[in-house]
Amino acid sequence: MKRFIFALAFLVAGCGAIPGLGADDNRHDQLVKYAQCLRQQGINVADPPPGEDSFKLDGRGVPKDKLEAALKTCKKYRPQQRQPTAEDLERMRKSAACLRRNGVDASDPTAADPGIRVGSPPPGKDLDAIMAACEKEAGQ
Fold this sequence. Notes:
Elements: E1 15-18, H1 25-40, E2 44-45, E3 55-58, H2 64-74, H3 86-101, H4 127-138
Antiparallel strand pairs: 1-3, 2-3
């Protein structure tokens, strides 16, 4: 299943998913090790679901320097990210635009930096619900 949801490099209050673009057992196993390492560093991460090679990373409430240090420490476990297709980038751009329409600071992905950096939602808004709606709207 091809998925490219939300990638690393979040703002302090951000959350999202670590993409891999297509599941295979080796990549899935690598992401499980990556998630385990991040948890050891105090980051809230669940293992990727079986058959998928993405997982949710919740950086809300984690100081930016702690998140960056954890990502650096665990970098050796992160699988090499495949280049997104033009179609993947378009879906991610649609997601970023939707997030912004809903008051969430979100960067536009590029081929060189295919992740979406996600900021805090407006007060009283649920970031998870906004992200789910935007993923659906973008066809992810």
